[in-house]
């Protein structure tokens, strides 16, 4: 905090008055000098605060917005800060996530999810912001970026919305097609990175799961490999002599079966 030099004259006058009142002993009781000293201390503290009432109000609004952040937004903001990025104090990330789209019998189905399937037709990122008056009434550059588990950039979209004071929801104008090019994408943990005016505001982690056809293909191949493994193990067991421990364990199991 920086001392406000404009407050020096009246602080000096107030300090001299307090000293005179305390040393003169003319006060009816001890409470009056104590009250004067407390008043002087409060005045000095206020002079050290280099902030205007409007700034204090905006700081309180920012604190209230931070309390209402979703768990996803809080996690994404922490990840962005750990990477050395600090967003404007006039903007608070309230929410962040992915919207997956699928066309069904009743039209387009849109759902919020953290597990995106390669069977989905497409996916769009979104954010919710709380904008203070100092950061409002302007156009901002919003950049959405999706990266796969190997760090390869798979989607970039920039937009320039007009920010107004209060809370606003921003959904990317375009989506990343998934089902049409599922074979090009690698399932796993992906990253959604969102920046505003070149400053990273959030980094959200979501999961991309394989398509059904890919899962069925893996399931079809699994039994053959499992049976082959079991056959090899059985052959190895047949070739190796049983130890005394194995014989005793087998005898104990036979005895338990006989008692039943």
Description:
This protein has 260 residues and is α+β, with helices and mostly antiparallel strands. Helices cover 41% and strands 30% of the residues. The protein is built from six helices and twelve strands. It has helices at 8-24, 31-48, 53-67, 71-82, 212-239, 244-259, and strands at residues 91-104, 107-113, 115-117, 122-131, 138-139, 142-147, 153-159, 162-163, 166-171, 176-177, 188-196, 199-209. A hairpin with a 2-residue loop joins strand 11 and strand 12 (199-209). The longest helix is centred in the C-terminal third of the chain and has 28 residues, at 212-239. It is elongated, with a radius of gyration of 34 Å. The model has no long low-confidence stretch (mean pLDDT 77).
Please sum up the structure shown.
This protein has 260 residues and is α+β, with helices and mostly antiparallel strands. It contains six helices and twelve strands.
N-to-C SSE string, H for helix and E for strand: HHHHEEEEEEEEEEEEHH
Portion in beta strands = 25-35%
Main sheet characteristics? 5 strands, antiparallel
Structural class: alpha+beta
**Cα radius of gyration in angstroms:** 34 Å
Count of helical stretches: 6
Low-confidence stretches: none
Tell me roughly what share of residues is in helical segments.
Answer: 40-55%
The coarse silhouette is elongated
Summarize model confidence as the mean pLDDT: 77
Record field, number of beta strands? 12
């Amino acid at each position: 905090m920086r001392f406000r030099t404009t407050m020096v004259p009246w602080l000096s006058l107030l300090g001299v008055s307090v000293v005179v009142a305390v040393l003169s002993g003319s006060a009816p009781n001890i409470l009056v000098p104590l009250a004067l000293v407390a008043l002087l201390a409060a005045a000095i503290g206020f002079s050290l605060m280099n902030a205007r009432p409007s700034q204090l109000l905006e700081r309180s609004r920012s604190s209230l917005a931070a309390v209402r952040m979703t768990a996803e937004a809080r996690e994404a903001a922490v990840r962005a800060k750990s990477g050395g990025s600090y967003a404007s104090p006039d903007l608070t990330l309230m929410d962040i996530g992915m919207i997956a789209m699928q066309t069904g019998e009743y039209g387009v189905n849109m759902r919020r999810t953290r597990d995106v399937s390669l069977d989905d037709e497409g996916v769009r990122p979104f954010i919710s912001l709380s904008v203070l008056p100092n950061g409002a009434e302007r156009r901002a550059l919003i950049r959405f970026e999706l990266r796969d588990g190997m760090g390869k950039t798979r989607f970039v979209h920039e937009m320039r919305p007009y920010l107004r004071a209060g809370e606003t929801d921003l959904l990317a104008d375009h989506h990343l097609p998934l089902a049409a090019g599922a074979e090009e994408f690698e399932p796993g943990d992906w990253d959604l990175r969102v920046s505003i005016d070149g400053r990273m505001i959030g980094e959200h982690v979501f999961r991309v799961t394989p398509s059904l056809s890919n899962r069925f293909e893996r399931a079809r191949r699994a039994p053959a490999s499992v049976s082959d493994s079991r056959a090899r193990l059985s052959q190895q067991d047949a070739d190796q002599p049983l130890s005394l421990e194995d014989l005793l364990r087998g005898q104990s199991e036979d005895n338990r079966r006989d008692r039943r």
